[in-house]
Amino acid sequence: MDFKRFITKVSNRRKPGILRKWAKIFMETPNAISLANGMPNDKTFPFEEISIKYKGGHNIKLSGEDLRWSLQYGPSQGYLPLVKKMRDLQEYWHKPKYNQWDVLVTPGSMEGCSKVFEMTLEIGDPVMVQVPAYNGTLNALTPFMPEFLEIAQDHDGIIPDEIMKICKERSRDGKSMPKIIYVNPTGANPTGTVLSEDRRKRIYELARTYDFLIVEDDPYCFIHFLAKQPTSFLELDTEGRVIRLDSFSKTLSAGLRLGVVTAHTDFIKKLLLHMETTCIHASSMSQMLVYKLLDTWSMQKLEQHFDDIQRFYRERRDVMLASIQKHLTGLAEWDIPDGGMFVWIKVNGLDDVMELATKNCVSHGIFLVPGHAFNCDFGKPDQHLRLCYSYATTEEIEKVPFPLFKIFFNIS
Ligand SMILES: Cc1ncc(COP(=O)(O)O)c(C=O)c1O
C-alpha cells in the first residue's frame, strides 16, 4: 500500500523525536546506563506494592520491575509484552492475510479514531460515514468541516450500493474522491445492526476499486447475539487498506482507557509519531493490568468471558424488547438489535423528537438520546430515540416503556 494519497500535510510533517527513540532503545537494552532520559526516578514515587484481585479469586501483586513499569513512562507503541500479546490475539481472531501489519495501544479507541481522522483528513475533505453514527465520531469529524457523504443502514448494516453510487458519480463528475469510510460494523451505535458478511466483502471490494481506506471502529465486536463471530474487515484485508480500532472499554473496563489500532506498518509508524507528541503513550498502569489479565487467562477463559458478556446483554435486550413490544406497538417502530447496547426506535406520528426527549421524557424522570445526536447535521429533525439497555437495572429497563407509552400516546 502506498499511503501518500491518504496522509495529510500536517501528519507528513511529523518527524521522530530523538528522545523517544533513544528511550525506546534504552528500554530494550539490558543493563544499559542512561544519562539521557529525563524520566523521573521511581524511587521517589509513593507506591510500594499494588494488589489486584480478579473476580473468581485470582490475585496479582505488582512489585519490583512490574511496578516500576506500571509507574514509569513507556514506549509510545505500548508496553511491549502487551503489544506482543495483542499481535498474537489479532493473529488468532482476524488472521490478517498480509504480513506488514502491526498494532499500537491507545488510550481508548476514540483516541485512536480521532488520530486517524487527523492523519487522513484535510479541512473540507469528503468522508463517507455510516449514518446514524456514534456521536463521538461525528464530533471528532465536524471540526474538519468535511463533506459528509452519508451511507444509510438497514437491518443488515450500511448499504454497499450507496457507497458505489456515491463513488461512481464523484468519479464521473471529476470530484475529489473520499479517502476513508467510517464503519462501525458490529452492534453499531446507535442502531445495534451487525453488518452482514456479504456486505463486508462487497464494501472491501469497493474500497479496492475506488481506493479508499476502511476505518473499522469495532468496540462491540464481542457483543453480538449471533451464532457466529462476524468476519472483520481486517480479516478480509489483503493489502493494508483497513485501519481497525479495538477497545477494551466494553469487555474489560471503560475507565482503564485502553484501545488498540491495527493497521499496515507504514500507517502505524505515522500514528506512532502522532502519539509521541500528544499523549506520549497509553497509561502504563492500565496496560500492565490488562497485560497481566490476558497473560493469566487462557484463550478459553477469555472467550468464556465474552460469552458471559453476550448473555448478560442479550437478556437485557430481550427484557427491553418485550416491554417495548407490550407497550409501544403501533406507536413506534424498531428493529431487533443483533449486537451492541441499544434499541433504536422510530416514534410514529412525530416529525421531530427533540422536545419529547428533552422535555416530556425528562419530566417523567427518563433520560434517552434523541436521534439528532447521531446525524451529521445535528439540527436536522429526527424521529428516532436511542434506548440503552446496558446500564439501568432490568427492573428499570422493563419499567420505562410504559411511561413512554403514555408520552407517545398523548402526542400521537
Ligand atoms: C462506536 C463507538 N466507538 C468508539 C467508542 C469509544 O470507545 P473507547 O472507550 O474505547 O474510547 C464508543 C463508545 O461508546 C462507541 O460506541
From TrEMBL:
Homodimer. Residues 72-399 form the Aminotransferase class I/classII large domain. Belongs to the class-I pyridoxal-phosphate-dependent aminotransferase family. InterPro entries: Aminotransferase_I/II_large, Class-I_PLP-dep_aminotransf, PyrdxlP-dep_Trfase, PyrdxlP-dep_Trfase_major. It holds the Pfam family Aminotran_1_2. One of its GO terms (molecular function) is kynurenine-oxoglutarate transaminase activity. This is Kynurenine/alpha-aminoadipate aminotransferase, mitochondrial. Keywords: Aminotransferase, Pyridoxal phosphate, Transferase. GO terms for biological process: alpha-amino acid metabolic process.
